[in-house]
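Lab notebook: predicted structure, single chain.

Context: the supervisor wants predicted structures on file for every construct in the current expression panel, including those that have not yet been purified. This is the next one on the list. No modifications to the sequence; it matches the entry in the shared construct table.
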Amino acid sequence: MSPEVFVDILREALWLIILLVASIVVPSLLVGLMVAIFQAATSINEQTLSFLPRLIVTLLALMYSGHWIIGKIMDFTFELINRIPSVIG
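Prediction complete. Output recorded below exactly as produced.
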């Protein structure tokens, strides 16, 4: 039961969190940037104009990548369960 095992598990968990969150946030950020450029070019300063497209893109990203996200979480969980003997012993 060495500290390296726990650090390795924590590193993998943090990387998985970054990967899963990025798959949802990055499309929303890109759409927000495009709307901001459009607002700056047309001098439209409406706050709700940027909210709805980002919301729709976030929901679509969740819809399309949901299966992949659940698969990654399940793979990580199974890997954690398989590592129990190395953590205990």
